[in-house]
Design brief:
The radius of gyration is 43 Å and the shape is globular. A hairpin with a 6-residue loop joins strand 21 and strand 22. Helix content is 49%, strand content 6%. It is built from 60 helices and 23 strands.
């Protein structure tokens, strides 16, 4: 029958289409019955020809196309039925023919009775409510319609109801996507015996009619498409064509709903190559058909990835033997100039500006048919129908029809292959689409139905090279938006990265293709082929390298960035979706030992890609300063596959690690990110705007941390476990720019870090080391342990709802499960660590959600501040966790004071990472710990309580992971002499804690106090050693022989780097590039520094004991507890030391040190004995304890006050020593603190607009936001002190005659009667009722920033409640109303001019001095001879003040516009302000400086006014 239909369809076509004969037109049913009977005969040739002629007349392509093109004229030509009449008539004919003369509805019911399909296949569009059962699902994309879900048994399953975003289809009945136990009753597996056979004549007419109908539809699609014009796309024309074709497509969609029998016929029609060939080749003389065919050929030309001329340049070359099937060609167009477009796709040239070098990829040798690259060739209706579906950008009706056919298995296979064949064409169309979001959703709507089936995905992978096509298409897609990387060596870099500002990335246009790739990698058989194909791995690493180093941030050092780019959204989304998610998909299949080879392959090619990247950016050993990128996907691929290899595959870590040189390079950029995080939180990147903080928060956010910060930390842990620990520790402090701070001198110079940032950067470096050494996420913790730790950390920050907690737990990277790690244990873990607080109704009637709060035992045993810090997006969450922890301790009575973060014992390390603990036992870290403890004890600046907490935490970590080796102490001294060997004899922390250091050589500024002190008799190493050898035991001689200090650690680190890479001397000179500042050079390179010898005579143990005394506020406060109970040394982990403050932490450390070493125990006892004889503590009653606590608090308050006074005195002394002549003989005389003048620092102001901090200058002044208001309140003051009663009647005067205003009005009238007007105005004040009241919110801003702000307010079209033209505005920070900006005078808040100093002179003498000053304008601070921005602003604010008062007081004299008016007003304002201070009884030490400041401001205003008026005062 199919052959007969094909023969009939392929017959000779009439040259001229005609309307059906009148008789046939009158009785369609009779004609259909007649034709069906004719076709049922054995010899049906005549009936087939008759049917063919009828279909040719009915399904003519000319009429609807004419209607589409000609509008009303076409409608008139087609009769009075309008443009849709012909289509409706044709559809009616098709329905009658399919029914064979019977009723169409009866025909549909008859066909549905023979539906053998066991699949639901219901297709829905966006916003459809569907279900997903994770228990029954095999694929994470499985979904069910509501009917199938409710008719299935999902009791107790993990399911959810969701609103579809892109559309979907019901998978009920598909055993490849979901388990059979979840099928509904209607779609359970049917046996073939239960399915009745379809009668032969039921669908006979369909086999003849449908091929011609579909060909007619394709003709319409061909004729209606026009290539987009150069001036713009033709979406309107496409939509118009689709609108006309909607009845035909709906008819096909209705046919698919008849069931499996009709879908089977449609499948045969759509996939029959002979039918397609016959109909498309027999064009005849039909001009319309020829024209449409020509359009089809033109549309096909742009369907490939390359044009014929491109093939000559980028032809596929056969790889040589022994090479991978896919190899990177390198950089094409290396000699090209910037701006040259080197892309195979001329449609994509818009995003290629600025790119001179472009990577190209050779296809594998197995892709010889060039199906990916070449122009498409169609062999069936299905292929061309999909082609036009893509060209028309996936119209919803067409997508629904294609998806409705999927329950037919034969069609599903054919359609999947066709979809893969057109995959590159889909990418090209998607890139050019102006509705990429809609098109993306519809692409995924189709592809998710095809690639969720593992068997089908495996089949097309083997037969159609699905993996090669997907990877190549993704590669070509990203190549259209590549730019030259500016990371490291901007001028000579050969690396290219994606431009995150391109629409391709900003709009996530790549999303549907990446989603498909992630989907197929979830299938084990497909992922296995990918991991086995070396060529694919090379190509994929090349693709990932496009994202390596993207969205580079450069720190702004001068001006605030004008435009804050928001490209980081696109960058983070691209790395997560295009790089991280495929990585997790591959990792999910590397769980057993048998998959070791897969991991080896990935690690191998990842390392090769990393080495190529280092070479491309010309990286040697030092990162470029003030640059950071948060995107290192190659590093993270390498890290995660290393973790999987050790954790699941039992691979030897060393077998997959590179050499030492490569490890040193690998650690640099992840470490740079950690240092940059500290810089961002220290406001060092404030000029880059808020977007840089957004990047820092996104980097650690719960949805990204698994794929970003966690792999980075793990990679640094791996590098630290294999590299020299001294090299690693010194690298950390160098990257954090705090090496200069690690000196024991009281002063230091830091050439790359401002003093205000040193404390926070030091805190960041120590916190990073604590996290690095404490975190066990990839070093031995199981999935359930990780889940529990994550949950506890989130709950400790705040109480959480179930949904918010589920969202905050980092997403499981395994897309196969679609759920979080240990999802089946999520509820059990939650119930184990948290209590549920039931919802409660608030008084207003609203209900508060139920929350989970940590259990008491969680606070007691599992609260981990390190994990909280790691998972904190906002720093306030850390404080929130500590506040909640403090509240728990107080409520439970475990600790009444303010506790420190508790120390949590860590889980054991995996044996492969034992080397990480060497960091805790290296001399460099011990030097740092010793130095910081000493500085804290000496109350040096920039050392906070957080620094001390982290120092003690590191010491305790070292004691937890230490094995005492006292016998090896002397042996460990050997080896080459280095800068840190003179500090400690060995590398074990337990033994180094008791080692005493007597003298230390430091490099300090020449003005430092240490330079003035007497040095030992000799400062050489040998003499120092011999000096002490006669008094000290031989074992401890080495403690004095060394005089090196931490400032040389960087020189030591570079020396270590050169030793490891083992380069020649000439190459080694190139390694240490001289682009860093002299701060990092070896000692002696900075001439402004000098060497001094400090006498220390301390050990870590002695410092800890003295620190205990300092923290407790009591001398000899530490008493060794083992003197009373020796058993405590056996079990030092006792609840007494679990919670507490710094005193508890010190006691816990000393106890652990004593329990691990008998020598430590003895030395601790000796130190305590030297201070005071041991006295056991007496028992204290509760009342006495309460009294002691109060006394202790008072003592601590006194100590804090004394500490502040001592710090201020130290600053005074330092200032005086700096100011004095160095060669003066009085230098050696001790300076009394009381004789030193206070050190005055320059006033620093924070601009609330640009965020920059700095002093006010004459070129760029800073102003105070103020509100100026006219005020007459001073005029109501009275000289009479008799109290007045509130007036209660009209007879009583509210304003009595004895007010100051009335008195001065009378005085002025009297003066004007006898004296000249100019003299009178100098003798009175008009400010009693014409005064100005000034208010301020206290915020400051740059004057130029304020002008820009005002300009933006003028351009703002939003209705405002103030007049910008009058200078009114709201404070940018607090939104308080203001109308002027008062300039801040440059310098300190206290002036040192002679005329401002306190004086005990008489009032007559002071008057004379003021008169002299008035005659000498140059004595005023503001220069009259030169005009500056400050003077302009002072002139402006004077005008503001004057304009604020009432109009009659602006021209008070008899001569309007006279300068005398200005002087009168300003003098009056200043005079009245000072007079009010004198008249009040509040003249004391607090108000006197304020009064002087009023005088100073008045003088400055007058000086500026004189300048502006070009007059001098009388």
């Amino acid at each position: 029958m199919a052959a007969a239909a094909a023969a009939a369809v392929g017959g000779q076509q009439p040259s001229q289409p005609e309307l059906p004969a009148p008789g046939l037109a009158l009785d369609k049913a009779a004609t259909a019955a007649h034709l069906k009977a004719a076709l049922s005969r054995p010899d049906n040739r005549a009936g087939a020809e008759e049917l063919q002629a009828l279909l040719e007349r009915v399904l003519s392509a000319e009429r609807p196309l004419a209607a589409a093109a000609g509008g009303e004229d076409a409608a008139a030509a087609g009769g009075g039925g309008g443009p849709g009449a012909a289509e409706e008539e044709a559809l009616e004919w098709c329905k009658c023919l399919l029914a064979g003369g019977g009723g169409y509805d009866e025909f549909c019911a008859a066909v549905r009775a023979y539906d053998p399909a066991a699949l639901c296949g219901l297709v829905w569009t966006a916003n459809f409510v569907a279900y997903r059962c994770r228990t029954c699902g095999i694929s994470p994309c499985m979904s069910l319609c509501a009917e199938c879900f409710h008719q299935g048994d999902h009791t107790g399953h993990d399911f959810n109801m969701f609103r579809s975003q892109a559309g979907g289809a019901c998978d009920c009945g598909d055993s490849n996507v979901m388990r059979e136990s979840g099928f509904c009753k209607r779609h359970q597996i049917k046996s073939s015996s239960n399915i009745p056979c379809v009668p032969k004549d039921l669908l006979m007419m369909s086999e003849f009619v449908l091929p011609r109908f579909i060909f007619c539809l394709i003709q319409y699609l061909r004729e209606g498409y026009n290539e987009p014009a150069a001036d713009g796309p033709s979406e309107k024309d496409l939509n118009k064509v689709l609108q006309l074709l909607e009845p035909q497509i709906s008819f096909l969609e209705d046919l698919t709903k008849m069931g499996g029998a009709m879908r089977s016929v449609l499948t045969q029609v759509l996939t029959n190559q002979q039918n397609y060939k016959d109909l498309t080749s027999g064009l005849g003389e039909n001009a319309c058909v020829k024209k449409s065919h020509e359009k089809y050929l033109i549309a096909l030309k742009s369907s490939g990835l390359t044009y014929p001329e491109d093939k000559l340049v980028y032809g596929v070359q056969e790889p040589s033997a022994g090479t991978s099937s896919l190899a990177v060609q390198g950089f094409v167009g290396a000699t090209g100039t910037l701006g040259q477009v080197d892309s195979s796709d001329e449609d994509d040239q818009d995003g290629s500006q600025g790119l001179g070098k472009r990577k190209r990829v050779k296809l594998s040798s197995g892709t010889k048919d060039q199906s990916i690259m070449d122009v498409l060739k169609h062999k069936s209706f299905l292929e061309e129908l999909l082609f036009w579906t893509i060209k028309y950008e996936f119209p919803q009706k067409m997508v629904t029809f294609l998806l409705n056919m999927l329950p037919d298995q034969e069609y599903k296979v054919a359609f999947t292959k066709t979809f893969v064949q057109h995959y590159a064409f889909i990418m090209k169309t998607l890139k050019k689409s102006h509705e990429s979001d809609t098109m993306s959703n519809r692409i995924v709507h189709i592809s998710v139905q095809l690639f969720s089936n593992e068997e089908l995905a495996r089949q097309v992978t083997e037969e159609c090279q699905l993996l090669d096509i997907m990877v190549t298409v993704l590669l070509y897609m990203m190549e259209s938006c590549l730019i030259k990387s500016e990371l490291q060596d901007e001028e000579n870099s050969l690396h290219v990265v994606v431009n995150c500002g391109e629409a391709l990335l900003k709009n996530n246009t790549y999303w549907p293709l990446v989603s498909d790739f992630i989907n197929i990698l979830s299938h084990q058989s497909v992922a296995k082929r990918f991991l086995e194909d070396h060529g694919l791995l090379v190509t994929w690493m090349n693709f990932v390298s496009f994202f390596q180093g993207m969205n580079l941030n450069k720190r702004e050092l001068n001006e605030h960035v004008e435009f804050e780019s928001q490209t980081y959204y696109a960058a983070f989304a691209a790395e997560l979706e295009a790089c991280a998610q495929p990585m997790w998909g591959l990792l999910s299949h590397c769980k057993v030992r048998e998959t070791q080879e897969y991991t080896r392959n990935v690690v191998r090619y990842c390392l090769e890609a990393l080495q190529d990247w280092f070479d491309a950016i010309n990286f040697v050993d030092e990162p470029a300063p003030n640059q950071v990128t948060f995107h290192l996907p190659l590093h993270r691929y390498y890290a995660m596959f290393l973790s999987k290899a050790v954790k699941c595959q039992e691979l030897d870590l060393d077998s997959v690690l590179p050499d030492q040189e490569m490890l040193m390079k690998l650690m640099i950029h992840p470490l740079q990110i950690q240092a940059s995080l500290a810089e961002i939180h220290s406001n060092m990147w404030v000029r880059n705007g808020l977007q840089i903080k957004g990047q820092a928060m996104t980097y650690v956010q719960s949805h990204f941390c698994n794929s970003m910060i966690d792999p980075d930390i793990y990679l640094l842990q791996v590098c630290a476990s294999r590299l020299d620990p001294d090299y690693f520790i010194s690298s950390v402090f160098e990257r954090f720019k705090v090496v200069d701070l690690l000196t024991m001198a009281s002063q230091h110079q830091n050439t790359v870090l401002d003093a205000e940032h040193e404390r926070s950067m030091l805190e960041g470096a120590l916190t990073f080391l604590v996290i690095l050494l404490s975190l066990r996420l990839h070093l031995g913790m199981s999935d359930d342990e990780i889940l529990r730790a994550e949950m506890v950390a989130q709950l400790c920050m705040n109480d959480r709802t179930h949904s918010s907690l589920l969202d905050l737990i980092p997403e499981n990277p395994n897309p196969k499960s679609g759920i979080i790690p240990g999802s089946y244990s999520f509820e059990s873990v939650l119930s184990a660590v948290a209590d549920f607080k039931a919802p409660v109704f608030e008084p207003g009637g609203s209900m508060q959600q139920g929350m989970y709060t940590p259990k008491a035992e969680v606070w007691d045993q599992e609260f981990d501040p390190v994990m909280v810090i790691l998972r904190t997006v906002y720093r306030r969450d850390v404080q929130s966790a500590m506040d909640r922890y403090t509240a728990f301790l107080k409520q439970s009575g475990k600790f009444p004071g303010n506790p420190w973060p508790p120390y949590k014992k860590r889980t054991s390390l995996h044996p492969s990472y034992k080397g990480l603990m060497r960091l805790l036992h290296c001399k460099t870290l011990h030097i740092v710990l010793f130095t910081l403890l000493y500085k804290i004890l000496m109350d040096h600046q920039n050392l906070s309580e957080h620094v001390l907490c982290m120092v003690l935490y590191l010491i305790e970590l070292g004691l937890e992971n230490s094995a005492e080796e006292e016998s090896d102490e002397e042996a460990s001294v050997g080896g080459p002499e280095r800068c840190h060997d003179s500090w400690f004899p060995g590398s074990n922390l337990v033994s180094n804690m008791r080692h005493f250091i007597n003298y230390v050589r430091v490099r300090v500024p020449e003005t430092a106090p240490e330079v003035k002190r007497d040095s030992p008799a000799s400062t050489s190493s040998d003499n120092l050693g011999s000096l002490q050898s006669s008094r000290r035991p031989k074992v401890l001689q080495r403690e004095n022989s060394g005089t090196a200090q931490v400032f040389s650690l960087v020189a030591e680190r570079r020396k270590k780097f050169q030793e490891i890479i083992n380069r020649s001397s000439s190459e080694a000179n190139q390694v240490v590039r001289p682009k860093t500042s002299s701060k990092w050079s070896a000692p002696g390179s900075a001439p402004q520094l000098t060497t001094a010898i400090l006498e220390i005579k301390e050990s870590i143990l002695s410092l800890l004991i003295k620190l205990h005394h300092k923290l407790s506020g009591k001398q000899n406060s530490y008493y060794p507890p083992w003197l009373d109970d020796i058993e405590i040394l056996i079990q030092p982990e006792i609840p007494k030391y679990s919670h507490g403050d710094g005193i508890t932490a010190v006691e816990r450390i000393l106890l652990k040190a004593a329990s691990q070493s008998r020598m430590n125990k003895r030395i601790i006892e000796e130190i305590c004995r030297k201070v005071t004889p041991p006295v056991p503590p007496k028992k204290v009653t509760a009342a006495e304890k309460k009294t002691l606590d109060k006394e202790e608090r008072r003592q601590k308050a006194r100590e804090r006050q004394q500490k502040l006074l001592a710090e201020f005195a130290s600053r005074q002394k330092s200032f005086m020593e700096t100011a004095m002549d160095v060669d003066s003989p009085e230098n050696d005389i001790p300076m009394e603190i009381t004789t030193a003048e206070p050190q005055v620092s320059e006033a620093v102001y924070d601009c609330v607009i640009c965020g920059q901090s700095g002093p006010s200058s004459e070129d760029r002044p800073t102003g105070l936001v103020v509100l100026l208001q006219a005020s007459s309140v001073l005029g109501q003051c009275r000289d009479n002190v008799e109290p007045k009663k509130l007036p209660i009647s009209e007879e009583e005067q509210i304003y009595p005659w004895d007010t100051c205003a009335a008195v001065h009005d009378v005085r002025l009238s009297l003066l004007q009667r006898y004296f000249k007007d100019s003299s009178c105005l100098l003798a009175v004040s008009i400010g009693w009722e014409g005064g100005v009241y000034v208010q301020t919110c206290g915020h400051t801003l740059h004057i130029d920033c304020h002008k820009s702000y005002m300009e933006s307010l003028r351009n703002d079209q939003v209705l405002q409640g103030f007049s910008v033209d009058k200078g009114e505005f709201t404070c940018p920070l607090c939104r308080q109303f203001a109308n002027s900006v008062l300039p801040c005078y440059p310098g300190s808040n206290v002036e040192n001019n002679p005329w401002q100093r306190p004086s005990n002179k008489s009032i007559q003498d002071l008057i004379k001095e003021v008169e002299e000053l008035q005659g000498r304008p140059g004595a005023f601070p503001v220069s009259i001879s030169s005009e500056t921005n400050l003077s302009k602003e002072m002139e402006s604010v004077m005008k503001d003040i004057k304009n604020t008062t009432q109009k009659k007081y602006r021209d008070y004299s008899k001569t309007p516009g006279s300068p005398d008016n200005d002087f009168l007003f300003m003098y009056s304002v200043a005079r009245l302000g000072n007079r009010r201070f004198v008249k009040t009884k509040c003249i004391d030490l607090i108000y006197i400086p304020l009064m002087k400041e009023h005088m100073l401001v008045s003088a400055r205003f007058l000086s500026t006014s004189m300048k502006s008026l070009s007059l001098l005062p009388c």
